[in-house]
Amino acid sequence: MEHVAFRVMKDGTREEYQFxxxxxxxxxxxxxxxxxxxxxELDGAVDGYQVSRLTHSLQTATRAERDNADDEMVFAAxxxxxxxxxxxxxxxxxxxxxxxxxxxxxxxxxVEKHGLFQxxxxxxxxxxxxxxxxxxxxxxxxxxxADFCENWDQASFDPDYDTHxxxxxxxxxxxxLSRGVxxxxx
Length: 186
What we know:
55% helix, mainly alpha
């Protein structure tokens, strides 16, 4: 079979859906390479900083790795701004959906909230509440997100920092995305 015969899903047969499932499994096997390509595309995003968004992401992941963060958190540091490609005003929401199936709930929460937590460093300069993150003070992962931003994210705009290249992180991305999907986390 080259392609299914149905034109509306409700008319599909078991054989057609089994065929499509096999193709989907092959597509999923290429997921890590597509994520790495998307990270590479960050090289052209958002001018004005002393480093590209790609370098920022690599630097964030390098700092996390050097601080002995676990693989899931290093992965999160690498992809935390990947949403800038498709939704620059809501980048955290895109990034969190990319990492959600592969990382623990704490890491998901950090990626989801990092944009708000970053406002602490500059929000007051652009008309936003720098203390917006305080609505989550007391949350079990508040400190984790605050540390992510303080130690890795906001600190990673340094053109002189010894940053690992994307190729350094490729095995981690392939490993993490091939482990299988964690159960859905609400």
